[in-house]
Amino acid sequence: MEYSNESDILTGIETELEIEFNTTKEAEIVLKSIKPEINGSPSDRTTVSIDIHENTLRITIDAQDSASFRASLNSYLRWIKLSYEVINLKNEYL
User: What is the pTM of this model?
Assistant: First the structure.
């Protein structure tokens, strides 16, 4: 996080999250399912990148302000959670 020297206002947030899945295949499926969201991000105030290493997704969010950071974080976590729930639902019925 960065703060402006003039008024102690938050001017940017960058964070990196790592989400570990049970298998590499699960991580790959989730990445493929949210990839369109990465490419079609509607906000000019936030940049998001996601990469995969074995069974772990690494999400980097760089936002200009706390509102855009929170919105991006919530969106990506919700999409990842939904994708993971679909995987588990599929596994339950196989």
Answer: 0.77
